[in-house]
Amino acid sequence: MGALIPLARESVSRTTLPGSVRAPGAARAFVRTALTGRSAAEAFTPVTLDEQSIDDAVLLVSELVTNAVLHAGTRVEVVCRLQPGEGPGGEGGPMGPEGTPGQDEVPRDIPNQPGIVVEVADLHPASTVYGGPETQRRGRGRGLQLIGALAESWGVTYHRTRKAVWFRLDAERAGPGFDAVPTTALGRELRFAETLAPAPPREQRDPTADWVDRGGPSFLAEASELLTGQLDENMVAALAGQLLVPRLADWCAVWLTTESGQLHLARVWHSDEHRIGALRMSLERYPPPTGLGSAGTSWPWPGIADSQGTGGSAVCFPLIAHGRSHGALLLGRAGVPRMAEGVVRLSEDVARRVAQAVATARLYTRQATISRALQRRQLPMSLAHIPGVDTAIVYEPHGEGQTVGGDFYDLFPMGDRRWCFLLGDVQGSDPEAMSVTGLARHLVRLLAREGHGVESVLNRLNQALVEEDAEAAEIDGEQSRPRFLSLLYGELEPDPAGGGAHCTLASAGHPLPLRLTTDGAVAPAASPQMLLGIDENPDFHADSLELEPGETLLCVTDGVTERRNGIRQLDDDDGLSDILRSCVGLGAKAVAERVRRATHNFSAEPIDDDLAVLVLEAVPAVEPPRVP
Question: β-pairing, 485-494 with 419-426?
Fold first, then answer.
């Protein structure tokens, strides 16, 4: 016999996946990429890797990884080998994943074909996912049944620290010099159908049960992935309906509990959309009782649910999470007197995931509602109008849901043609920080309206913060954390005759305000001073300036100046001054928007701090109309 000439080199790809519900999807994507990428093309040249072999490999690895992750919760390693073979007539059978003959070889006189070898290794040495009697009894050995139906050879390899299941699929020859062999794929399909075909039933059987046996674990993993992270309970109900119909049921309904403990019908879904309205009306008359048990409960079949009048089976599941009822899930299957046990069990698993998703969404909604209520109390509803001064504010609290953070602002009148403005930042963004925010804003208003000037307001506010920290330390002990406050506070006195405004202001540990003149010059408008809440006896002083018509005062929090792009900050090398310098001739709102946009564009990463911008622009005085 002549020498064997390999078609191409072997290609090996491997990955390690965590024990999470996302692992099966990641395994499917990994194997498909390994079999369709450049390395696969080079390994099988000039033989074409057929789509049937790729689909079979993806199906089998999905089942094996699903078993390992869902039932053992362990990390798995997936190895995909492309073996090019030795040409027609070559000797040697299929090889195992380590390059040695497989445990269940096909006869050696079969021509050695190109093939795919996939190994799924359980990285937990004590795992018994693949094989034991208990596993087979619970139906978790379905992956091995599929392997027996589709693979040319397979086996279980035991290592000192892990156990692996591997399988080999022959790739169909479709390249130059080979004849296509359609009978191989046909034989594989026939064996697959024979393996999964149910035994002839003695009584009527729900056909959905067969699908549950094959695809239940994968379906459950996909359902978990879709429901996780949903922050709206109505969206959770809608997703539940579309997940369950028609795969597990012909129709379903989701009730959600109200704040008073009653149930309202949130979602009805039917495989025949024309029947949804009538089914909803029927179900609304008889909601489930609030005391449903933890398992599925048989439910009377609503006649409107099927068009043939043959009836069916309906089961109701409570939506319970963290010991609390959040509603009920009702499923109906037409044409069967009783749902199969596997269908009920899988539906119960889905109901638990729906309940957890609803509970999570409600917790998020409750927190967002509290934050909005706090925001209404911590921030002014609107900015005061100042004659002769154009004003603008940008406020973007950090965090999902746009809750109140540590930044705050205010602009209010105090009589005698004077207005006060402030921009502050409390360390942190938790409820304690928000309480300091409310204290500071309301105390500044009270002190200003009692006639205290800029220096006096800062000194008295500092005293209040120091006393509050001392009281918190006595109550909370070592768990108490001092709350420091940076604040820019000032007073404006517009000039109604000549335009512009006289400004008195002070910056206590805050980014310094910048003044933009009409000729484009930019300079700090105040001197730096210490944070509020650090020293019991500070000596705050105020700075004064005349804001001429057309000049702009820009005030920002450190969410702007400390915006990062790698190791660089936005205000490095006077970056904020350069941005303001480009705003000559713009109104207050346009300046605020340009600073906001420049802050976002400084880095591709999301902003990780609160952002606040206050702009005050003096405008020319309006001449009164002349009397003829």
Answer: antiparallel
